[in-house]
Design brief:
heterotrimer; A alpha+beta; B alpha+beta; C alpha+beta; A: alpha+beta; Uridine Diphospho-n-acetylenolpyruvylglucosamine Reductase, domain 2; Uridine Diphospho-n-acetylenolpyruvylglucosamine Reductase, domain 3; 2 domains; 5-stranded antiparallel β-sheet; globular; C: alpha+beta; 7-stranded mixed β-sheet; elongated
Chain lengths: 268, 151, 461
């Protein structure tokens, strides 16, 4: 019998990373609460009545650490703190909602939140995919590190700990601009060049962030930005949702890819 | 759980996942934060949490245990309006009044962190707040006036 | 006249900025129960079975109401004007729009009320839903509504019609016919205060109803009619509305809350969620307007044929009134001596539509003004000059034969041109709204002139 009242939920508030990992276990029956901006509406509307909630705000999982050219960002780092992060992550973060939401929403929530059904979520995913970020998680079988595009495709059962990436030499960003601060990104394209090469990430082109390998492959064999951008539809998994139709996104996406590639400037 | 609300300490008994908004309104009868959407979309419930503007509908009580909360009731009474409150009144920034509490709390925090906020910074700072009587111009004028007035 | 032009303080300004204004949701009455409604998940369905017994047995549930609990279930928002009733307060054997209320629960808290709603057993037989009102005259459009595809009570007609002058002669004389189709879409009012009611049964047998309504005495009449109570047993408290814009003219939450309060013998509050506001509360209607204007090459509009389809949604509510206003304004701010207008209120499976800021008129203004630009483009005439030439002037008569005493089209167009630095020839710049004469009184306009001093101007509607 699922819980029917918020009063029945057990709230666990670990005070260290180790405690958090221990309390998460294999993740079964655990609802992880980061900033709360995505889960609270579900609870307010009575759609989510969790049994066990892991409240991570004091678990020591926030902060940005620099080590030479690489950055490690804790899962509980707020989107507001990411506004000054290297591009294209900084721009993607500044485009999320409004000041109050950014000050509360976390990196972890942005990467782990399931698609909203009516809208895609995860505005930061395109940027981190372009940056070639590696994600460190805990869960069944212990800690694990994997490319972010693999993680966002199947985040269930994992507790996100931190994200690590190398500061890029060049980056580019292009998005469908939103008329209002609240909607999730309709479509965003990020491009970044690191020592590992040039990567292209997409937000809003599928249920979660996607890597545009077809574009990257075309560029690698010498295609122009214009030619390569046309390949992006091979990677996209467009859906109709409350923000835009798949039809519209299909027409917009190659244009945004080209703009993001044209925008590739020096790294920050 | 314990909260200091407008300088007064309260022990709360609502479940820890209750939103701060619901706890303020239903347990403490502090009704200036409004339940406009319960999903962070309208900004009518914004209060100050340890001095920073937050949507109270998106914060579980458990996350604010021990915090100091300021609501519109705690800003200034009728005979002692804060700069922002006085500016909203003088510039007709409150029409139906339902969004006003959230706007004033957000503007108060904005001026606190950006004392010389430009018009662009005001627009960005308040962009998550919705007014449907279409008082945005008057609201922004009020905040500009409050920025320009001595504290 | 000390107030005109003066900056007077708002009477409610200080209360607003100190958080002291009390909206319905801010009123505290000890022991208040919370309400949730069972709403139809389908846009069109028959209700085959409804059983509330399991929900009633749930601990914390104080009352559940269905159509059986409503003394006078079927009501019309314009019943007082002689327009027949058509809409059930709570659905009986069918639902005609998604979100239509079927039953409501009053319980100790919202969680319990929500759980009780889930325990109500209901079976639907889903039917095809119809939304494209352009197909309403097609033979396969079903009778969604008991009155047929369109509202049938405009006197002896099934549409609001306006006839003036000789429309056939106008079209025969025309140099060009300019046609256009205009389709403004629905708009949700989206007040920041959601629909909320609080109903308190008093010891003296009366009900105190705290209401967010925009139309207090109207709502009072609606509640009294459903309950079959005399007005003196209802005490309405209202006037503090957290935004309405027309969306709080329909009586949406008070009556069901009142029935629950009477049955539970406890105060009952019903506060809609934002999602209910968007999905179920009435909206401004989508409209479909087809215009054909008979025009001369030098820019006179001799005649207009217009057909309007107004999407009422599943029930009539105020739609006939909106279409009537729409009809009166169908030439906009311009004088057209020969008109032929038919306006239909079409029933569909969308949520019922209602008033919103300029009810019925904003749609036609959009169509008329866009059409004026289209005419100017077709004729190769300056759009402002076209407007000034055909502008209403003193003594001109509207489609429904109101003689204009002080029309403002000319000064408004000239002021707008001036503000945006739009240059007009001297003969246009010097125009006024004075009674037509000379070049501004061509033969085709002579017959439509009336005498303003003897007229009865209808005034604002």
């Amino acid at each position: 019998m699922p819980a029917t009242s918020l009063a029945e939920a057990q709230v666990i508030a670990p005070t260290s990373r180790e405690e958090a990992v221990g309390a998460f276990g294999d993740g079964s029956g655990v609802t992880v609460l980061g900033g709360g901006t995505i889960l609270m509406p579900e609870m307010n509307y009575g759609r989510l009545r969790p049994e066990r909630v892991l409240l991570l705000q004091n678990a020591g999982l926030s902060g940005i650490a620099r080590n030479g050219g690489s950055l490690t960002i804790g899962a509980m780092t707020t989107v507001a703190e990411l506004e000054q992060a290297p591009e294209p992550l900084g721009t993607a973060a500044r485009n999320v909602a409004d000041h109050e939401i950014r000050a509360q929403a976390t990196l972890g929530g942005n990467l782990c939140a399931p698609s909203g059904g009516a809208t895609p979520r995860g505005d930061l995913q395109a940027a981190l995919i372009a940056l070639g970020a590696q994600v460190k998680t805990a869960g069944k079988g212990g800690e694990r590190t994997e490319p972010i595009e693999d993680f966002v495709a199947a985040p269930d059962g994992r507790l996100l700990l931190e994200v690590e990436f190398e500061e890029p030499q060049r980056s580019g960003y292009a998005a469908a601009h939103r008329p209002h601060a609240h909607a999730y990104t309709i479509l965003a394209v990020c491009a970044a060049e690191t020592t590992a090469g040039l990567r292209v990430g997409l937000s809003g082109a599928g249920r979660n962030g996607l890597r545009a390998r077809s574009v990257e492959d075309a560029l690698a064999v010498g295609a122009s930005a214009e030619e390569a951008s046309q390949k992006v539809l091979d990677d996209a998994q467009m859906q109709d949702d409350a923000l835009a139709s798949a039809w519209y996104r299909q027409r917009l996406l190659p244009i945004l890819v080209q703009r993001a590639l044209d925008d590739l400037g020096g790294g920050k | 759980m314990r909260l200091t609300v407008n300088g007064e300490q309260h022990d709360l008994h609502s479940p820890p996942l209750t939103s701060l908004l619901t706890a303020l309104r239903e347990e403490l009868d502090i009704t200036s934060p409004k339940a406009g959407c319960h999903q962070g979309g309208c900004g009518a419930c914004t209060v100050l949490v340890d001095g920073e503007a937050r949507r109270s509908c998106l914060l579980p009580l458990a996350a604010v245990d021990g915090a100091a909360i300021t609501t519109l009731e705690g800003l200034g009474a009728a005979d002692d309006l804060s700069n922002v409150q006085a500016a909203f009144d003088e510039h007709y920034a409150a029409q139906c009044g339902f969004c006003t509490s959230g706007f004033i709390m957000a503007a108060t925090a904005l001026i606190d962190r950006t004392p010389k906020a430009s018009r662009e910074e005001i627009l960005a700072g308040l962009s998550g707040h919705v007014c449907r009587c279409t008082g945005y111009i008057k609201i922004v004028s009020a905040v500009e006036a409050a920025v320009g007035s001595p504290a | 006249m000390k107030a005109v032009g003066a900056r007077l303080p708002r009477y409610d300004g200080v209360a607003h900025v100190t958080g002291q204004t009390q909206y319905v949701d801010d009123i505290r009455v000890r022991g208040t129960l919370w309400t949730k409604a069972l709403r139809s998940p389908h846009a069109n369905a028959a209700i085959k079975r409804l059983d509330t017994s399991k929900a009633e047995a749930l601990s914390g549930v104080y009352a559940i109401v269905t159509h059986k609990d409503v003394p006078h279930n079927v009501y019309g928002h314009l019943e007082a004007l002689g327009i027949p009733a058509d809409e059930p307060l709570l659905a009986v054997d069918e639902v005609r729009y998604k979100g239509q209320p079927i039953a409501a629960v009053a319980a100790v808290d919202e969680d319990t009320a929500r759980e009780a709603v889930d325990l109500i057993e209901i079976e639907y037989e889903e039917r095809a839903a119809f939304f494209d009102i352009r197909k309403a005259m097609d033979p396969d459009w079903p009778n969604i509504h008991q009155w047929g595809p369109v509202y049938p009570h405009f006197g002896s007609y099934n549409h609001r019609r306006v006839r003036k002058g000789d429309i056939d002669a106008a079209f025969e004389r025309a140099d060009t016919i300019v046609e256009g189709v205009y389709r403004p879409q629905a708009i949700e009012h989206c007040p920041i205060e959601p629909q909320t009611a609080l109903v308190v049964p008093e010891a003296n047998g009366r009900l105190t109803i705290y209401s967010c309504t925009q139309a207090m005495y109207f709502s009072m009449g609606v509640v009294a009619a459903h309950l079959q109570w005399p007005l003196n047993k209802l005490k309405f408290v209202g006037g503090t509305v957290g935004g309405g814009f027309g969306g709080k003219v329909d009586t949406a939450s008070e009556t069901i809350s009142a029935l629950l309060a009477l049955k539970a013998k406890r105060p009952v509050k019903w506060r809609w969620t934002r999602e209910e506001e968007f999905l179920v509360s009435s909206t401004r209607a989508p409209w479909h307007m087809e215009l054909a204007d008979a025009v001369t090459s030098d820019g006179w509009i001799l005649g207009r044929r217009m057909t309007t389809l107004h999407d009422a949604g599943a029930y009539a509510r105020f739609s006939p009134y909106g279409v009537t206003k729409h009809a009166f304004h169908h030439t906009g701010a311009y004088t057209i001596p020969n008109v032929h207008f038919d306006g239909f209120v079409v029933f569909s499976n969308r949520v019922p539509t209602t008033a919103m800021r300029g009810f019925g008129v904003t749609s036609v203004s959009f169509a008329v003004e866009t059409h004026m630009n289209r005419i100017a483009e077709v004729l190769g005439i300056d759009p402002l000059q076209l407007r000034l030439k055909n502008a209403n002037r003193i003594g001109d008569t509207t489609p429904n034969r109101v003689v204009l005493k002080d029309p403002s089209t000319v000064p408004v167009v000239l002021a707008a041109a001036d503000r945006v630095g739009y240059d007009l020839p001297a003969e246009y710049k010097s125009m006024t709204n004075a009674r037509r004469s000379g070049d501004l009184l061509p033969e085709h306009l002579v017959a439509q002139l009336g005498e303003p001093e003897h007229s009865s101007n209808g005034g604002g509607r």
